[in-house]
Amino acid sequence: MSEPLLDRDSGVPLYAQIRDVLRGQILGQHIAPGEHLPGELELQERFGVARSVIRQALSELADAGLIRRERGRGSVVVPTRLHHRRAEQAGGLSRQLAAAGEHLRTVVLDLRAATAPDAAVPALRTADAWRIERLRFVDEEPLVFMRSWVSRELFPDLTADAIEGSLLGYMRSTGVVPVGGPRQLRAVPADPTVADHLGIDVGTPVLLLQALTNDDQGRGLEWSTLWHQPSTVFDVDAKVETRVDAPADPAAPGSPDFDRVRELIAELASIIGPGRA
């Protein structure tokens, strides 16, 4: 695989550029889990740098848990631990992960009264909102950074302690019945805030889930954005449509095309004359 040229005038250290190239190849499965990275001398020749630069890049990959350096064998790509969740299920992440033997812990980073973003106002039916930032850990590793907007009118007494376990659980305790809502999922580069909370580099691809949760009366309860680690897998159950309507037969009696054909035949008969059609 040909390596991209290093930008020696960018101000970004060469070891960091090489680290990012190799990390991209690992995360993109160009170098599969269990495979060896090229040796230090080969990498030195590929990138045209000193061996110490290569060693620093590999050291950072090892610190990030992407590779394992073995004496006499080089560097081996470590299998990525994947975290599965249901794409169509609103809430219940703790139960989903518990089924896989993983423990979820939530930390409320910030809770304050604030004006909701323009995009959230129609859903919440108000701009007077709580702005909530939370970080969810799986076995002490950050998995999801969440920023939510919740109506202060619906939940005037909301506190950080009350939602540390589950925001939806708190809502249920007030008599509200969350039922779910639309979800959008896409890949985006991590900005500095997201990268800092998830412990990854700026620009690393992450999965962004934009979600609206309504109650059984159609009121918007929570408008939220969730940034997931690249190791998150969203599982979807796809169903084949059981009935496929056949396209209309243009020659069937009663169809527009059939009626038009009859009109044309009648016009042709009138032109040709009786007895000749």
From TrEMBL:
One of its GO terms (biological process) is negative regulation of DNA-templated transcription. SUPFAM superfamilies: Chorismate lyase-like, Winged helix' DNA-binding domain. Pfam families: GntR (PF00392), UTRA (PF07702). Residues 12-80 form the HTH gntR-type domain. InterPro entries: Bact_HTH_transcr_reg, Chorismate_lyase_/UTRA_dom_sf, Tscrpt_reg_HTH_GntR, UTRA, WH-like_DNA-bd_sf, WH_DNA-bd_sf. Gene3D superfamilies: Chorismate lyase-like (3.40.1410.10), Winged helix-like DNA-binding domain superfamily/Winged helix DNA-binding domain (1.10.10.10). Signal peptide: none annotated. Keywords: DNA-binding, Transcription, Transcription regulation. GO terms for molecular function: DNA binding; DNA-binding transcription factor activity. PANTHER family: MANNOSYL-D-GLYCERATE TRANSPORT/METABOLISM SYSTEM REPRESSOR MNGR-RELATED, MANNOSYL-D-GLYCERATE TRANSPORT_METABOLISM SYSTEM REPRESSOR MNGR-RELATED. This is GntR family transcriptional regulator.
